[in-house]
Task: structure prediction
Amino acid sequence: MSLSSVNTQVALPAAQPDFGRALALRSMAAAYTELPRYLLAPEITGLLHHIPDWTQHALVNTLWNTGGRLNEVLALWRRDFRLNEAIPHVVIRTAKQRRAGSGRPRRGTSPNRVVPISDPAYVDEMRRLFASVREEF
Result:
């Protein structure tokens, strides 16, 4: 078997964040004191770079990519991730949403939220995590 017959896929380098633009966005966001605080994409990239534990990295990355609340993300199971679909997505169960009426959902039921995942690097990370870690019940 020759090397030319092996079909290998070369990973492209990730796009570098524009830190000048990020600083301009940060100063713009700081002017609005009544709005909630949040991190920008380059700040999340820097944060994720410094998390050595793979599972903690996946937790923070899931919070960032899904916009889920901490308790919602901690309650996710492997079956909630649909990574092999045409549009990869996560089904998040929550008790915070209300139905079209007053009050909480009926007991035993909980509305679901389908969150599409647009970051291919995150999808690959979760696939690798699921392939290497056994789910605990």
In short: Residues 1-13 have pLDDT under 50 and may be disordered. Helices lie at 19-30, 41-49, 54-66, 70-74, 120-132. The CA atoms of residues 68 and 92 lie 8 Å apart. The beta strands are 81-82, 89-93, 112-116.
